[in-house]
Design goal:
The protein is α/β, with parallel strands linked by helices. The protein is built from 8 helices and 9 strands. Helices cover 33% and strands 20% of the residues. Helix 2 runs parallel beside helix 3 and helix 3 packs parallel to helix 4.
């Protein structure tokens, strides 16, 4: 099983946006080819998991992540959009499949327990906020997570425009992290509404990185696209 180097988190860039490539936007019939294509540019691979209840879609399963892990040494960031009742078992299944980071939703009633389960499995925990959830919800957990992801669109839906409050929410989260991240680095990721015209604004608002979907996978000139991103 391929794995990233042990210091991969410390080597995430600070002088350019972190690039998380969403496997949801890869060609499902040519996933291996797409992973090879993005290999020189992907700081992380982003895997969305949804159960059809917590989020409207059905997305990615542990055996698919295991296959990705078998061909890629890039860190795998699993975003769990699942009901609280199955959250713990999903953490264990995706940890076994090869995840390096697992982010869970702050809207779940068992968020604190989930974070501890992720840490106990030796993985990096993160939190995700839906667009309707106050950013202040993050504060009690900031000493226990390495990743914060703010959704900029409705949960589990592709192709939607950036929410009107997304930039303000990023600014608020960035300031909150700056006040609390004294002992460890916390990475702030923007997910959803990622377009050519929105990424510079997201970066300016405080995003350390973005989850790239069709903007990257759908670009026929990926090297030029990544050069553009690196300049932001």
């Amino acid at each position: 099983m391929s794995r990233p180097e042990s210091d991969w988190f410390d080597r995430l860039p600070t002088d350019r946006p972190i690039a998380e490539f969403s496997t949801w936007s890869a060609d499902a019939l040519r996933l291996g080819e797409d992973l090879e294509r993005v290999k020189p540019y992907a700081d992380l691979l982003h895997v969305d998991v949804a159960d059809g209840h917590f989020a409207p879609s059905f997305l990615f399963f542990p055996d698919q992540v295991m296959r990705v892990r078998s061909v890629s040494a890039a860190p795998i960031h699993v975003h769990l959009m699942v009901s609280p009742e199955i959250l713990m078992s999903q953490i264990d299944q995706f940890a076994d499949a090869g995840a390096d980071v697992i982010t869970v939703h702050a809207e779940s009633h068992n968020t604190a327990e989930a974070i501890e389960r992720i840490r106990a499995r030796g993985l990096m925990p993160g939190l995700v906020l839906q667009v309707e959830t106050p950013v202040a919800t993050l504060e009690p957990f900031l000493d226990r997570v390495q990743f914060i992801t703010l959704l900029g669109t409705a949960i589990g839906v592709k192709g939607k425009g950036l929410h009107e409050e997304a930039l303000n929410r990023l600014q608020e989260a960035h300031a909150l992290i700056a006040r609390h991240a004294q002992e460890q680095r916390i990475v702030l990721i923007a997910d959803g509404g990622i377009r050519h015209e929105t990424v510079p604004k997201l970066r300016e608002a405080g995003a350390d990185g973005v989850v790239l979907g069709s903007l990257a996978f759908g670009d026929p000139d990926l090297p030029a696209r990544m050069k553009w991103l690196a300049a932001l």
